[in-house]
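User: Please fill in residues for this 66-position structure.
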């Protein structure tokens, strides 16, 4: 799998900035006619603290089917 695109994003100011991302991942060798395959969608939460030069992936999991 490889990163395809950000589907949606939100941010929240906490002790740093918490990003809630929904990302799509494409199958590496499964590209369709438009060059992008029907991949999987994942939810990720990342906390960034620029003053510490810190980025932490807090959660990465398949998105809930809705």
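Assistant: Residues filled in for all 66 positions:
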């Amino acid at each position: 799998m490889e990163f395809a695109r950000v589907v949606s994003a939100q941010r929240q100011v906490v002790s740093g900035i918490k990003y809630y991302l929904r990302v799509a991942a494409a199958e590496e060798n499964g590209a369709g006619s438009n060059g992008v395959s029907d991949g999987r969608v994942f939810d990720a939460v990342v906390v960034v603290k620029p003053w510490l030069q810190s980025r932490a992936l807090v959660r990465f999991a398949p998105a809930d089917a809705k």
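For context: The two ends are 22 Å apart (CA to CA).
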